[in-house]
Amino acid sequence: MTPHTEPITDASAWKPEDLKRDKTWKFELTDTHRAELAEALKQVNDRGLPFAEVTIDDFPLPTLASMLSQIQTELRDGRGWAFLSGMPTEETYDFGDLEKLYWGMCAHLGIGVTQNSEAGLIHYITDG
Question: How far is CA 33 from its chain centroid?
Fold first, then answer.
């Protein structure tokens, strides 16, 4: 197999100065988006679904779905990452509801799979 030796010039080959100039990698939830998340969470909770069983069909996001599609494009065909701000936190929801919110929203980005030998679906990173 011959190694690839041509320079990479697409969006995945970004440099810090590119991020300062072009901020299309930044996304922010609006109050409407947060209301949609709350309503989708209510529907999931009313049905008693655990987070790992939540699918895109269980988690309707009428206006947020468009932004999530843009994020999906950025992940797959763009820089390979995106920054989303404005997510509700533990100040608004308990831990179990946050799992469902993240899982349901991410169901719009793709299919969640385990990332380790323990078959964990969500990993928790904390500060402190």
Answer: 13
